[in-house]
Amino acid sequence: MDVKIGELPSWKVMWDFTPKGIVGAFQRGYCCYYDKYEQVCQCEERGRCWGFYGAYVLFNYCLSCKELKCERPHKHHQGETSVDGAL
Amino acid sequence: MNENLFASFATPTMMGLPIVILIIMFPSILFPSSNRLINNRLISIQQWLVQLTSKQMMAIHNNKGQTWTLMLMSLILFIGSTNLLGLLPHSFTPTTQLSMNLGMAIPLWAGTVFMGFRHKTKAALAHFLPQGTPIFLIPMLVIIETISLFIQPMALAVRLTANITAGHLLIHLIGGATLALMDISPSTALITFIILILLTILEFAVAMIQAYVFTLLVSLYLHDNT
């Protein structure tokens, strides 16, 4: 944003001097510094990694779904007598 | 239950097609390459780790041995990442397959042995007889040293397979025991759950240590032959 020297006082009066505005100004300043000097890559590498791991786990779960169905406990029928009951 | 215990070690197929090649290639996605001078944090950390490992591992080698740096660094990254990814739930670990580990161990060991016989034939043959051996023991010791030479790739492969497979089986068994005990005795289930957490931490360490041991032994065989 370009401000001419003659317009400087009127531009300064436009600032938000409330506490919320001052905090927001510091946050914007830090974000500008971070984006310019620290975050070189555009994409968020942490989110990409966890997304990959989650997709990989889901993919393997879908592959092993058939074997997992056998591990579910079977419901016993009411008419069945158990060996322990006979003893 | 016995069949289900080993079901996770079966090679995965999808609609009849083997997808084990895709699973073997998956760790390469986690090591992005970059042509920037200053990289992001992920690549910087990976480059720092690779530099640290290569300096520590290749310092003992001469110029001829240091030509193997790329091969050994790729090996440790591949085995380490594959073992660590295998600790995710439901995942298939290629390094639990003896065929895969033999496929890595035999060519690397044979490469070092052939290199030794080609460039330093006398020194390579001298390895079959330790210095200071009594004369009447020479025939037996040559046979023993020959057997120990040919056992090296088998030991490399079986060590990796057994460690990773045993760890996964233990996790499977203790996890199953924890689930079964939850209905019977929650306090005992809590104890087995704590054991499971400790075992998982141990398996993370074993995954990285086994990758390091495999690569270090190949590096030592190379050092003996160069």
TrEMBL record, chain A:
It is a single-pass membrane protein. GO terms for cellular component: mitochondrial inner membrane; proton-transporting ATP synthase complex. One of its GO terms (molecular function) is proton-transporting ATP synthase activity, rotational mechanism. It is found in: Mitochondrion inner membrane. One of its GO terms (biological process) is proton motive force-driven mitochondrial ATP synthesis. The keyword Transmembrane applies. Its main location: mitochondrion. It comes from the Eukaryota. InterPro entries: F1F0-ATPsyn_F_prd. Transmembrane segments: none annotated. The keyword Chloroplast does not apply. Keywords: Acetylation, ATP synthesis, CF(0), Hydrogen ion transport, Ion transport, Membrane, Mitochondrion, Mitochondrion inner membrane, Phosphoprotein, Transmembrane, Transmembrane helix, Transport. Component of the ATP synthase complex composed at least of ATP5F1A/subunit alpha, ATP5F1B/subunit beta, ATP5MC1/subunit c (homooctomer), MT-ATP6/subunit a, MT-ATP8/subunit 8, ATP5ME/subunit e, ATP5MF/subunit f, ATP5MG/subunit g, ATP5MK/subunit k, ATP5MJ/subunit j, ATP5F1C/subunit gamma, ATP5F1D/subunit delta, ATP5F1E/subunit epsilon, ATP5PF/subunit F6, ATP5PB/subunit b, ATP5PD/subunit d, ATP5PO/subunit OSCP. Subunit f, of the mitochondrial membrane ATP synthase complex (F(1)F(0) ATP synthase or Complex V) that produces ATP from ADP in the presence of a proton gradient across the membrane which is generated by electron transport complexes of the respiratory chain. ATP synthase complex consist of a soluble F(1) head domain - the catalytic core - and a membrane F(1) domain - the membrane proton channel. These two domains are linked by a central stalk rotating inside the F(1) region and a stationary peripheral stalk. Belongs to the ATPase F chain family. PANTHER family: ATP SYNTHASE F CHAIN, MITOCHONDRIAL-RELATED, ATP SYNTHASE SUBUNIT F, MITOCHONDRIAL. This is ATP synthase F(0) complex subunit f, mitochondrial. It comes from Equus asinus. The lineage of its organism: Eukaryota, Metazoa, Chordata, Craniata, Vertebrata.
Automatic annotation (TrEMBL), chain B:
It catalyses: H(+)(in) = H(+)(out). Its main location: mitochondrion. GO terms for molecular function: proton-transporting ATP synthase activity, rotational mechanism. The chain crosses the membrane at residues 6-31, 67-86, 98-117, 137-158, 164-182, 189-222. It is a multi-pass membrane protein. Belongs to the ATPase A chain family. NCBIfam families: ATP_synt_6_or_A. Component of the ATP synthase complex composed at least of ATP5F1A/subunit alpha, ATP5F1B/subunit beta, ATP5MC1/subunit c (homooctomer), MT-ATP6/subunit a, MT-ATP8/subunit 8, ATP5ME/subunit e, ATP5MF/subunit f, ATP5MG/subunit g, ATP5MK/subunit k, ATP5MJ/subunit j, ATP5F1C/subunit gamma, ATP5F1D/subunit delta, ATP5F1E/subunit epsilon, ATP5PF/subunit F6, ATP5PB/subunit b, ATP5PD/subunit d, ATP5PO/subunit OSCP. This is ATP synthase subunit a.
